[in-house]
Amino acid sequence: MIYGLERPVPKVSSSGYLNELALWAQKASDALDLEIDGRMSSEVALAIGAIDDAPKEMELLTRTAFNAAIAAGNISFMIKPTQFDSLRMKSVVLRSMRFQIKSKTEDAKTRVLSLQVKLPGSALTSGDSLFNCTSSTQYQDSEGNETGYGVHNLSPIGDWSIKLPERFVTGEPLAELVNIYLFLKLSYRR
After folding, report:
1. CA separation for the pair 134, 114 (Å, rounded)
2. What are the tens digits of pLDDT across the range 80-131?
3. Which residues, in sequence order, are bridge partners of residue 46?
4. What is the phi-psi region of residue 25: left when phi exceeds 0, alpha when psi lies from -120 to 50, beta otherwise?
5. Which residue of 13, 17, 183, 188 shows the fewest CB atoms closer than 10 Å?
């Protein structure tokens, strides 16, 4: 299935099968062109940790749950369809993702984390859904820390998890971690 289009391959037959495959490929290509032409692209920012225990629409975990997850070294959260409904985004697929971290200390020192991210179960194979990402406290534009390889055409809706290292690359404990922001580049329909 590509972009929600289901086009089963014709059953093998003893005559004319190559012709059937050629016609199937052309129809599938035409349908895909129409689907892609009608799609838009945008970036959505989500805060994994809320400011308090009453998360807003674009915050994924309560402050208490986020702090407990940091202490455990593994953050699990769910992205729901309603988070895109309010933005009038339908048939949402992931193009790329990036992370930005915020630490307690407001000095000029850059803190870097290496994250292992498991995407929702919509990946083609189990190996395709685990990505190693690096994130920094310094702001990076969408090209600076983007993970595009392998996430094209996957649904962002569902259960995610992030495995954290024990410390920042610079040696500070994760207790310094205040929040993680997830930026999703999406393709969608209105």
Report:
1. 4
2. 999 999 899 998 988 888 888 888 876 667 778 888 898 887 544 444 566 7
3. 182
4. alpha
5. 13
Domain range holding 52? Answer: 41-189
Specify if 30 maps to a domain: no
CATH number of the domain encompassing residue 86: 2.60.120
Q: What pLDDT, on the 0 to 100 scale, is given for residue 143?
A: 53
Tokens at 190, concatenated: 């209105």
Residue 109 backbone phi and psi in degrees, to 5: -70, 130
122 part of a folded domain:
yes
Q: Is the pTM of this model over 0.85?
A: no
Domain count, the chain: 1
Q: Is residue 151 part of a domain?
A: yes
Residues paired with residue 187 on neighbouring β-strands, in sequence order: 41, 93
pLDDT digits (tens, 9 = 90+) for 148-165: 555 667 889 999 999 998
Sheet with 40-49, side-by-side order of all strands: 59-61, 40-49, 177-189, 90-103
> In 3D, which of 43, 38, 32, 41 has the Cα closest to residue 2?
32
CA distance 91 to 187: 8
